[in-house]
Every structure is written in structure tokens, then in C-alpha cells.
Amino acid sequence: MRTRTPEHKTASVRAEQIILFRASSEVFAISSGAVQEVRSVDSLAGAPVGVSEPGLKKVQHAIRRGDKNIYVVNTAMHFGLPPSPVALIFVLRKSRVALLVNAIEKMTSMTRLQALPGAFCNQERSWYRGLTVLDQNVIPVVDPAGFLSKDELFLLDAANGSGNLTEARDAAGAEATI
Amino acid sequence: MSWMDQADTRSCVLLRLGERRFALAAEQVAELAAPSRVFRFAHRTPEIDGVILRRGRVVPVCDVAERLTGKRLFSRRFYLIAARKHGQTMDWIAIPVSGQCELIRADLTSAGESDSPHVAGWLSHGGEVIELLNLNALMPNPHTDSTPAAVEASPEVHAQ
């Protein structure tokens, strides 16, 4: 329920719910509104299909939803971090991307998102919406649209159209390679 | 002193990087800060070491010592917080320095064509000829495109 203070116009501080998650050894934040489902990697046993696109090694699996492929991005590889065992999949809302992550650290809220300083001038500009400060820690807030570009999705679709998707025969094996 | 000489006299901050001293135009320097925790996260801009928090602002740390002296700076005593204007935005950078800084007024000589791009000019102080640094040539250049990320690059945006 919202309350208004018409006499004293104070700066309204809006909070955004975020999920802090770990990929490799680092902690990132994502808006909880951007995440449609959080699933265990185990729950996808048998469902993922293998994807092979040499130029996009961060995508090795897809989930079939209706007539669409949802591409599973290894978040650690996306950020160029050392690989580590993953346990969860974030299926992103209104997107054809899912993220493999190690663990959820916690759910919290942020009230301030600082733009990425201009000195950061490479790929990270598309990776992050900005930076937030939580408990005196600087946490990068990922941009859900930054994991796969339209061109990359097109490339994956072209290479892995529904007819070409090879079903993962061994779920355990697929899990081990995730 | 002639009028031209006076026009070339500027306030500068001398900073020490290892064995050498360099200068920055005083108007570019915001403050000298004590060492603080450097936060690191995944990125692809090699010149940036991480970020520090200063007065609620996230300031990228850019170690210029290796580029200027050929040696990395192992003993960071302070961060010189400098600003550079890029278009409409002011960009803050924390430069690790290895000693106390000094504010001086000195006569400047303009950089010549043969000087490196990072040299904005030269000054003479205490028997030493010192490079005045051109921050824009030393730091990664902020992007200037009009992607959504660029629109977001205002100093601060509030969560939606």
C-alpha cells in the first residue's frame, strides 16, 4: 500500500527486488522480475538438448519450450570466469535465455543503481545494467538482455533449428558437461 | 615575466609513481584518498583494476604506473581521485600513487609533436623536468555510442 505526502515532496526511493547469485567465485545481482523460474539442474535431466556452435561455447544446451529453444548460457563462461560446478538454472522472463549458476546467495532489494563508470568501455557495458552497493560491497547488476545478442540467437537458431537439435542421450553426461 | 609566460603558469599536482614524478593539472584533481578496499568483478577493460567506493560513488581504479614507468606499483599509499570531462559527463578515476602529492605552480612548456600522446606538457620543478599528464590519452576511452547502456551512463539511476 502506498502512502503519499503531498506537502513534503520527498525523493521517493523505489526498491527493486534482486537475486544475488554466484557464478564461479563471483557474486552478481539480477532483477528478480527478470527471472521466471529457478530450477535445479537435476530437474532438467532428460529435457535439455545438446547445442554445438563453435563460436558460442558458453551455450551447450537448450530447453525446448513449445516451438522455441531456450538457450542455456553458462554464466561463468559468459563472464570469462573459471568453470565451477553449477546447480541452478534461471529461466529468464520474456527471453529465450536461461542461465546456469552455482547458487543463490540471497534475495534482497536495491534502492540505487549506479551507472557503470565510463572508463569501463568494452563488453562489460552490455553485460551490466550498472552497479549497486550492498553492505559496503559493490555488486554488478547483470542485464538480462546482455547474455545473448539477437545475432547470437539467430546464429544458434540457424545452427540448431528444432530439426537439428540432438537430444541429450545421457542426462548425467549432459549434466557433467554443463 | 612576460604576459605569455604568465599565461603558461598553472597549478599542478605532483604525484609519485615509484621512482618518478608526474604532474596533473590541479583542476583535474578532486582529492587524495587513503587506500581502501578494491572491489573486483568480471570485465574486459584491462586498464581498470577494480573500483573503490568514495563518498558513495563508485570510482574505477586505473593503475597507470606500468604504462608510465614500466613497473607495476606494489606499494599503494594513496589514490589520487581525478576527473576528466567526456562530452556532457564527468568521469572519475582513482590513480594509485606511491607517495605524498604536492600542489605547485609552475611554468609549462607545451608538448611537442614527438612527445607521447599521454604528455600534455612539461614543467620544471626542483631541478627535475616533469611530464604533465594527459588523462584522456592514458585512460580507456568512454564509449560514446547511443546504445541503451550509454543512455544509462548518467551518474546515477534509481532502481525501477
Short characterization:
The complex is a heterodimer of chains A (178) and B (160). Chain A is mainly β and 178 residues long. Chain A has helices at 75-78, 124-127, 150-159, 171-177, and strands spanning 16-23, 26-31, 35-40, 49-50, 59-65, 68-74, 88-92, 97-101, 103-110, 112-113, 128-134, 137-142, 166-167.
Descriptive account of the structure:
The complex is a heterodimer of chains A (178) and B (160). Chain A has helices spanning 75-78, 124-127, 150-159, 171-177; strands spanning 16-23, 26-31, 35-40, 49-50, 59-65, 68-74, 88-92, 97-101, 103-110, 112-113, 128-134, 137-142, 166-167. By secondary structure, chain A is mostly beta strands. Chain A has one domain (35-177). In chain A, the strands form 3 sheets. A 7-stranded mixed beta sheet of chain A has the order 3-7-8-6-5-4-13. Chain A has a 3-stranded antiparallel beta sheet with strand order 2-1-9, with no helix packed on it. Chain A has a two-stranded antiparallel sheet with strand order 11-12. The termini of chain A are far apart. The model of chain A is unreliable at 163-178 (pLDDT under 50). By secondary structure, chain B is mainly β. Chain B has a single domain (3-151), classed as Beta Barrel (OB fold (Dihydrolipoamide Acetyltransferase, E2P)), CATH 2.40.50. Chain B contains 4 helices and 11 strands, in the order αβββββαβββββααβ. The longest helix of chain B is centred in the N-terminal third of the chain and has 5 residues, at 3-7. Classes of the chains: A mainly beta (178), B mainly beta (160).
**Structure summary, number of beta strands of chain B:** 11
Strand fraction band of chain A? 35-45%
CATH architecture of chain B: Beta Barrel
**Oligomer class:** heterodimer
Averaging pLDDT over every residue of chain B, what do you get?
83
Distance between the termini of chain B: 59 Å
Q: How many separate helices of chain B? A: 4
Largest inter-chain contact set: A-B, 39 and 38 residues
User: If strands are numbered along the chain, what order do they take across the biggest sheet of chain A?
Assistant: 3-7-8-6-5-4-13
Radius of gyration of chain B: 17 Å
Q: What is the CATH superfamily classification of chain B?
A: CheA-289, Domain 4
How far the N terminus sits from the C terminus of chain A, by CA atoms, comes to 43 Å
Structural class of chain A: mainly beta
- The number of helical runs of chain A is 4
Number of domains of chain B: 1
Total discrete domains of chain A: 1
